[in-house]
Each structure stands twice: as C-alpha cells, then as structure tokens.
TrEMBL record:
The lineage of its organism: Bacteria, Bacillati, Actinomycetota, Actinomycetes, Bifidobacteriales. Pfam families: Ppx-GppA. Residues 20-322 form the Ppx/GppA phosphatase N-terminal domain. This is Exopolyphosphatase. GO terms for molecular function: pyrophosphatase activity.
Length: 334
C-alpha cells in the first residue's frame, strides 16, 4: 500500500499546532502526538487590525520549536495554514516573512470557506470507525469549529441524495473566544450585562449563518477545537484534561449548559486553578463558552430531529489539512 509522510501546521488566533503523519488509502496515521503552543497571535487584532510585536515573537518562537521537531522526520510536504486573525491583520506580510524564514514554507491564509471544508474533512474522517459505538451518529452532520477569531459551521449530506462526508453548506462567523472576550467580557468575572451584550453580538452572527446553512435538517452536532473540547471535559467533570476521554465523547446539552454557567461565575484565578483548562486558554475561554452555549441553544430551537447531545472531537482543521495534503501527494505519484 502506497503511503506518504506529510506535516501540517494550523496557526489560529489563539494557538498553533503541528501534526506529522503517514497518509495512505485508509486515512492518516499520526507518527507522534500533535504539538500545540498557545501563542495568542490574535491578541488585540479585533481592535487594532494588526499583530502585536509580542504576539509575533511568541508565534515565531513556536515555529522554531516546530522546525526542530520536523528535522527528525523525512517529510515529503509541509503545509502551513493561517486562519481568522491572519485574514484580518494589516501587517500580515511581517508574519509571513518570519514563518518563511524559519520553516521555509509560505503560510497560506485560507478563507473561511476552505477552513470550514477542511475542518469537516478532518472531523468526519474518523467517524466511520466509531459508527458502531456512537448511538447519536445520524446524518446530516453539522461540524462546529470554534476558534479564537471565527467559528465555522459546516453541514454534510443526508447519505441519500448526497454523501454524508460531502459538504453541502458552510458559513464562517467572525466570532470566537478571543474576539468575544476582548470585545465584551472586560470584568473578572464578566458582568451579566457584558454577557448579554456578547449574546446579542453572537445572535446576530448566528442569524446570518442560519440563513446560509439549513440547520433545521441537522441530526448530529460534532464540536471540534480547544474551546469545545475543554468545555466538554468540564461538562463531564474531569479533574485533568484527558484527550482520550474527551475524543468521541457524547456530551448532553444539559451538561454543557451547566458547565458554562459555572465557568462564567469563575474569576481568572479560579480558572487558573482548574487543571482541565490549559493555561493559555484561561483568559479567553469565557468568550468561547458563551459562543458554544448560545449556538447549541439556537440549534436546539431550529433543528427538529437533533439529538439532545453532541459529539466532542479532537479531529478537525489540522487533520483535514494533513489528510488533504497527503492525498494530493499520493495523487501526484499515481
């Protein structure tokens, strides 16, 4: 069986991640645990539309660590994608030049549409193996990728008129954990008024998204990204974060709504003491929690046959980037 070793880097608003994997006709097979660094690249981009010098330096330091790791693998191809904050930053050329210098690859600032499609590919690529054990895995799927600067909604086919793993509709909302926290949640903890202002902002984006994505047909929601997996770990009351316990877990709506309520009542010190929350997410996860909580509420109102639970997944954009890159490399060989 033909296989290729490739690597992908996903640079988001809050974190940057590296995956190295073999890709063959059966999918991708990670060669090592994926590496994540929380660099806050999108810090203040919502207000200034520019990367700060400190944010760039943190990101370049992480890229240098990734370069050291990549030296130990014979990688045929590397793809570096950047998302929401990079789409908005006026000094993007400084970021691109730094990454090119360190990794010898040009960062691709992908559109919200491509981000959505790759997230969907990554999330659904592992679902067939779980079909026997996940009782709520009914099509159509809606994949939600909640990042620091944007949130992607991607809906697949119904398995009859169109394949379940084929994107039918998608929409990228300019709301995420960093944007909502910096824009609205200025107290510690946030006040009720600040939370309500955030909800109103989020609802406006959801209204536009639901005009483009027919969510009334959704049966299964799959949540990817660090915010959602962290909220899922809190919802099932893990003491420390456990990737294996979270990946593929079915989380009831009641569980996550309660976890959200408790999180928003915490101040930053209390969040720091919570071992489930990565230190790099302590400052921004309240904004993401509100986005996730409100989106689930709105989906429950609109999606007639949706299960009263969602699937948490550790597989999303980065998996999609690597899988797509590997498949293209294999196609060029044939």
């Amino acid at each position: 069986m033909s296989a290729v070793t490739v690597a992908g880097i996903d640079c988001g608003t809050n974190s940057i991640r590296l995956m190295i994997a073999n890709v063959d006709e059966n999918g991708l097979h990670e060669l090592k645990p994926r590496d994540t660094r929380v660099v806050h690249l999108g810090e203040k981009v919502d207000q200034t539309h520019c990367f700060t010098h400190a944010a760039l330096q943190r990101t370049f330091a992480a890229a240098e660590e990734f370069a050291d790791i990549l030296e130990h693998y014979q990688v045929e191809a590397l793809r570096f994608v950047a998302t929401s904050a990079s789409r908005d930053a006026l000094n993007r050329d400084e970021f691109e030049a730094g990454i090119q210098r360190i990794l010898s690859v040009t960062p691709e600032v992908i559109s919200g549409e491509e981000e959505a499609q790759l997230s969907f590919l990554g999330a659904v690529s592992v679902l067939k193996a779980r079909q026997q054990s996940a009782s709520i895995l009914q099509v159509p799927y809606l994949v939600v990728d909640l990042g620091g600067g944007s949130t992607e909604l991607v809906m697949g086919g119904d398995g009859v008129a169109s394949p379940a793993d084929q994107v039918q509709a998608s929409y990228s909302m300019d709301i995420g954990s960093v944007r909502m926290t910096e824009r609205h949640l200025l107290s510690d903890p946030a006040t009720k008024q600040q939370i309500q202002e955030a909800v109103s902002d989020i609802d406006s984006s959801i209204d536009r998204a639901f005009q483009q994505v027919p969510v009334r047909n959704v049966k299964t929601v799959i949540g990817v990204s660090g915010t959602i997996t962290t909220m899922s770990a809190l919802a099932v009351r893990l003491k420390t974060y456990d990737r294996e316990a979270v990946d593929g877990a079915q989380i009831s709506m009641a569980q996550v709504h309660e976890a959200n309520r408790k999180l928003l009542a915490m101040n930053s010190k209390e969040r720091s003491d919570c071992k489930v929350i990565h230190p790099g997410r302590v400052g921004v996860i309240p904004g993401g929690a509100i986005v996730w909580d409100r989106l689930l509420e709105r989906l429950q109102e609109q999606a007639q046959g949706m299960a009263d639970a969602y699937i948490a997944s550790e597989h999303g954009l980065l998996d999609g980037v690597v899988l797509d890159l590997g498949r293209r490399c294999l196609d060029r060989r044939s």
